Amino acid sequence: MKIFITGLPLEVGEDELTAVFGDFGPVKSLRIIKDRETGQSRGFGFVEMPNDDEAREAIKRMNGGDYNGNRIKVAEAQEKPGGNAGGGPAGGGFKRNNNRERSF
């Protein structure tokens, strides 16, 4: 199960967060989202845990809690409509001319 966390203190690192969620069970992956230009944490991230019951327990116990002085929100991550990572139209970053025939 993939978990979404908001309200993270900016100084929290991936190793520290992995250890915190590791108290509930194995962590498959973890990513703190960072600003592209500065590399600074944006205060939110994702944790993936292979066991759904352990992930639900982490959500239940951590949501609304105090983490290094910040109140965090922890919830099951929701897939963006369309299922692509960028959230926009799939297929690339350019506008296509819909009047032309295309073959795929």
Summary, kept brief:
The protein has 104 residues and is an alpha+beta fold. It is 19% helix and 26% strand. The protein has a single domain, classed as RRM (RNA recognition motif) domain (Alpha-Beta Plaits), CATH 3.30.70.
Describe the structure.
The protein is α+β, with helices and mostly antiparallel strands and 104 residues long. It has one domain: Alpha-Beta Plaits. 19% of the residues lie in helices and 26% in strands. The chain has 2 helices and 6 strands, in the order E-H-E-E-H-E-E-E. The strands form 2 sheets. Strands 2-3-1-6 form a 4-stranded antiparallel sheet, with helices on one face. The longest helix is centred in the middle third of the chain and has 11 residues. The two termini are 35 Å apart.
Main features:
6 strands, Alpha-Beta Plaits, alpha+beta, 19% helix, disordered C terminus
List the helices and strands and how they pair.
Layout: E1 2-6, H1 14-22, E2 29-34, E3 41-48, H2 52-62, E4 66-67, E5 70-71, E6 73-76
Antiparallel strand pairs: 1-3, 1-6, 2-3, 4-5
Q: Look at the helices and sheets and give the structural class.
A: alpha+beta
Radius of gyration: 18 Å
Q: Which percent range fits the helix content?
A: 10-25%
Low-confidence stretches: 86-104
Estimate the mean pLDDT confidence: 84
The total of beta strands comes to 6
Strand content: 25-35%
CATH topology: Alpha-Beta Plaits
Tell me what the CATH architecture is: 2-Layer Sandwich
